[in-house]
Amino acid sequence: MRILVTDGMDKTAMAKLKELGHEVVEHFYEPEELGKALRDFDVVVVRSKTKIRENIIDEAKGGNLKLVIRGGVGVDNIDVKYAEANGIKVTNTPKASSESVAELALGHMLALARFIGISNHTMRNGEWNKKQYEGVELNGKTLGLIGMGRISRALAKRATALGMKVIYTDIIGAVPGLDEYTFMSQEEVLKNADFVSLHIPAAPDGKPVINAELLSLMKPTAYIINTARGGLICEEALCDALDAGKLAGAALDVFASEPLKCERIMNNPKISLTPHIGGSTKEAQGRIGMEIVDIISNFQK
Fold this sequence. Notes:
It is a single chain. The chain has helices at 11-19, 31-38, 54-60, 80-85, 98-114, 116-124, 150-161, 186-192, 212-215, 235-243, 263-266, 282-300, and strands at residues 2-5, 23-26, 43-46, 67-70, 89-92, 142-146, 165-169, 182-183, 195-198, 223-226, 249-252, 271-273. The protein is of the alpha/beta class. The protein folds into two domains: 2-96 and 281-300, NAD(P)-binding Rossmann-like Domain (Rossmann fold, 3-Layer(aba) Sandwich), CATH 3.40.50; 98-273, Rossmann fold, CATH 3.40.50. The strands form two sheets. A seven-stranded parallel β-sheet has the order 8-7-6-9-10-11-12, with helices on both faces. Helix 1 (11-19) packs parallel to helix 12 and helix 2 packs parallel to helix 3. The longest helix has 19 residues, at 282-300. It is elongated. It starts with a strand and ends with a helix.
């Protein structure tokens, strides 16, 4: 099959696909060119940058495209129902990056608790803010998880090892087999947690899941972390809460608009920032690549 890789892919996995007899083309197309280009490919592999929307699918109709693979957990950048209604299968790689995203979320928690990010910046400006940077320990604190999928469970294990209590909420209710963690409603999690980490898909209507009203439920000493989907937290409401001292800090790896351009977020010293790198580890990319190879091989069968 002819396979288009638009946003990069593990080189070992690409070599494996070629070894299996596939033609692999690595090239990023601008949106106005993508649909027409897809007619000449059987498979397209994307990450976050490439969006497969209805107009792209319409332009690709009548061509060879049979399979869209998202190298990562979510498929928010693909109009899945429309693609499948037009005979194009859509799948992702949900298992491969769980550990990497969980570790990044934990890293942000430590950065917020001990001022690691901001002190790195201020010290390079010649500041010695020893007294201002009195932090808190994760040990003894409560981690609240919104959504209890693979990434949440990986993070919960790490948090427990650091002496944290873990509470969670999930749309399906209490998850069987996770009795070591405490199930609560979303509102109760927000009220009781010292750190809140989001691990849920985007809302169907695209609106923020965590708005000003829900942020107001959190402790003024609490922190919120989003490594899941951009736009889950209302960014203006988050900045307002931080500026008013109603929230201690936040960490964001994903944003409503990427690349990030919101100056209120970029310039807020209470926010720890990374550029959507949750799954960006060598190990995760290797696992994602091999999962993609398996998906393509099984799809042929």
